[in-house]
Amino acid sequence: MISGPKGCEDGLSSRCSVCGRAEELFELPGRAEKCCLGCSADLATAALLADEIDAATFSGQNASGLISEFEQLGLRLLARSQSAETGSF
Hints:
Elements lengths: L4 H9 L12 E2 L6 E2 L1 H22 L5 H23 L3
Antiparallel strand pairs: 1-2
């Protein structure tokens, strides 16, 4: 590893901003951070689910299934994030 502040920044920038894994990173439109493939997919899905929940709510449709799916997705992202903090991924 390169020593000094620049070397530290370099090492940190190659990690997923959600789970901390050192994998190939992807940038989603409208987001500054970069994430691994799994986290990027989950974040994109969360954005789409939020839009669909809003659309269903505004049109008076039942959104409980979408809300349940959104909650499960949130739990999965939280678990992935917490495993990064403990280093058990």
